[in-house]
Design a protein that fits this description.
67% of the residues lie in helices and 0% in strands. It is mainly α. It has two domains: 55 residues, Arc Repressor Mutant, subunit A (Orthogonal Bundle), CATH 1.10.10.60; 140 residues, Tetracycline Repressor, domain 2 (Orthogonal Bundle). The longest helix has 29 residues.
């Protein structure tokens, strides 16, 4: 029997014998997922222990036990417990720099920096920003933590200053000073947010307000201060 050319060809229904078998996840993918899970457990365990016992009162063995791994396994993921104070700081700052580079060239430099920092708050809220808050919370009692935080912010402030300087018009008076003030002011607002979260957590008034909302409020205050200046 001839098939009418205007009639679409019928497709036989699939049968159990013709259905493709589901693809199994490659072994490499399973290994990577297991590694990421272990890394996550180590980060979370360290944050909890630092908050409860302080940095000095927490050992590598304690952190490893939280993740149910050996100390030897711990050192495959992190070179020291200091590295767990801010485990994602490199990724966080790289992300902020990338966001700043994507901001429109004509955008006000302070607005560009603030918007880049706000953009990083959501994806990193559960890791680096939370770790920063915990670190600020214990830094008052432990010099090693305070020193590491100071150095971390100082290094990033220098990098941020250079990026802001690149965005300023060539004829900007005292461009290097202006860039430094913008970078320093923005990061000071970030530090104020972290300290506020610490204080509210301590007195039981911390709400579920996302870090990005607090940052937005802090940057709004910063701009008001700037606009009120003579």
């Amino acid at each position: 029997m001839n098939q009418d050319p205007d009639t679409p060809l019928s497709v036989p229904a699939s049968t159990p014998d013709t259905e493709p078998e589901p693809e199994l996840e490659p072994e490499h993918g399973l290994r990577e997922r297991k590694k990421e899970r272990t890394r996550k457990l180590l980060r979370e365990g360290a944050a909890a222990l630092f908050a409860e016992h302080g940095f000095a009162g927490t050992t590598v063995a304690d952190i490893a036990a939280c993740a149910n791994v050996s100390e030897r396994t711990f050192f495959r993921y992190f070179e020291s417990k200091e590295a767990l104070l801010l485990p994602d700081s490199v990724d966080l700052f790289t992300y902020i720099e990338a966001e700043l580079a994507r901001r429109p060239p004509q955008e006000d430099p302070l607005d560009a920096v603030c918007n880049a920092l706000i953009a990083a708050a959501a994806p990193f809220a559960a890791s680096s920003l939370t770790a920063l808050t915990h670190s600020v919370a214990i830094a008052g009692d432990e010099r090693v933590v305070a020193a590491q935080l100071v150095q971390l912010f100082a290094d990033f402030e220098n990098r941020l200053t250079l990026m802001v300087l690149d965005r300023l018009p060539a004829e900007t008076p005292d461009a290097d000073l202006r860039a430094g003030v913008i970078a320093g002011a923005a990061l000071s607002a970030v530090r104020a947010v972290l300290r506020t979260q610490r204080r509210r957590r301590a007195n039981g008034t911390l709400t579920v307000t996302p870090p990005s909302a607090l940052l937005l409020e802090a940057f709004g205050m910063l701009k008001q201060i700037g606009s009120a200046a003579p």
